[in-house]
Backbone:
């Protein structure tokens, strides 16, 4: 938490004291900042995430940080945000999901 408050960036969109969308530094390494964006479901399709991400990226550039997005390519809203911001793919990698089963208490 201390590192976020010292070097992190975050923005929120608010409607009548309700947080509707958030964009912040999810991970930081040297000058790199991973962008995390989330919008409350009822406020989606209003470009809130795009606007917050744009503000976030401008702030990164102002402070000489390198913003980057890390998401699955089937996450279409994230792809739309990346395209809106003018991002380019630097590299891609495979990820795998492992099933997690709840351990039973049976003996």
Residues:
């Amino acid at each position: 938490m201390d590192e976020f408050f010292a070097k992190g960036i975050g923005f929120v969109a608010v409607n009548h004291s309700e947080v509707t969308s958030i964009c912040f530094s999810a991970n930081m390494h040297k000058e790199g900042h991973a962008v995390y964006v989330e919008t409350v479901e009822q406020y989606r399709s209003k470009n809130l995430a795009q606007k917050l991400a744009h503000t976030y990226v401008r702030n990164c550039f102002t402070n000489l940080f390198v913003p980057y997005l890390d998401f699955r390519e089937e996450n279409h809203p994230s792809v739309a945000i990346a395209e809106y911001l003018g991002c380019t793919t630097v590299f891609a990698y495979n990820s795998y999901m492992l099933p997690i089963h709840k351990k039973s208490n049976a003996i």
